């Protein structure tokens, strides 16, 4: 087991409970998503795993050793890319990379590899403060990864990025997963989670309410869903306004989408027996809706 978090709790001095009996694990060779609303405790969990925040009860283990007891060499196997990126803004990109290279005891070859993979060659002499948020994020990822860590934690790695930078970072993350490494990611972008992660944890009010695969979350949300979308093929001139009185529906160029409750689905399909039905799908057909649905189920 690369990382194991067992029954940890976190309270602030005021008595507010941020985390409640959190359990999660990461195996080498997998990318795991940690998902929840703002304030759910995602960043707190990452700070605890990285060793910069305390916790009460339970334990956090990296490669079988307590995080609290890791040597400085072992700690350098864990990289934490936080939302504020930890860069030295008034230093150049080259100087930042050199600082992190020395911290992680990395080689010049490792540093050059990051420069090449993240396309940083043209900005090495520029100060970090002069760069766009997308370029700063690429520099931050290069600095975090230069030491070839075994566990990588990324807090919102694609937030506020344009499509080009987002795609580059996603491809970079995917390319750096190996049988020896594990990656933990938080993101508000469900499409990124769906593209990157096989397994996810859903966090609600400081508690893990669900651990599942992405496909498993979608399946569970569909089972609990009470609304369906029935899509029917139509000729361009044909409309079904009279037939669909009492239903909510939207026309597209050559079809109509009809929204129906579970209790009325069977009768609607019988009524549409003479029409070409394109699809009947759960209204929960994307990961973002599914996460909200499953989080509510798990938190009840």
Bin the strand percentage: 25-35%
- Computed over alpha carbons, the radius of gyration is 24 Å
CATH class value of the domain at 3-77 and 149-219: Alpha Beta
Largest sheet: 6 strands, mixed
The CATH topology of the domain at 3-77 and 149-219: Rossmann fold
CATH superfamily of the domain at 3-77 and 149-219: P-loop containing nucleotide triphosphate hydrolases
Second-tier CATH architecture of the domain at 3-77 and 149-219? 3-Layer(aba) Sandwich
pLDDT averaged residue by residue: 89
Poorly predicted ranges: none
GO molecular function: ATP binding; ATP hydrolysis activity
InterPro entries: AAA+_ATPase, ABC_transporter-like_ATP-bd, ABC_transporter-like_CS, ABC_transporter_ATP-binding, P-loop_NTPase
Protein name: ABC-2 type transport system ATP-binding protein
Family: Belongs to the ABC transporter superfamily.
Describe the protein:
The chain has 300 residues and is α/β, with parallel strands linked by helices. Among the domains are: 3-77 and 149-219, P-loop containing nucleotide triphosphate hydrolases (Rossmann fold); 226-283, 2-Layer Sandwich (Alpha-Beta Plaits). Helix content is 34%, strand content 27%. The chain contains ten helices and 14 strands. The protein has helices spanning 42-50, 72-75, 93-103, 108-117, 133-145, 163-175, 190-196, 214-224, 262-271, 287-299; strands spanning 3-11, 17-26, 31-36, 59-62, 65-66, 78-81, 151-155, 182-186, 199-204, 207-213, 227-233, 248-251, 255-261, 277-282. Strands 6-7-8-3-9-10 form a six-stranded mixed beta sheet, with helices on both faces. Strand 7, helix 6 (163-175) and strand 8 form a beta-alpha-beta unit. Helix 3 (93-103) runs parallel beside helix 5 (133-145) and helix 8 packs across helix 10 (287-299). The longest helix is centred in the middle third of the chain and has 13 residues, at 133-145. It is globular. It starts with a strand and ends with a helix. The model has no long low-confidence stretch (mean pLDDT 89).
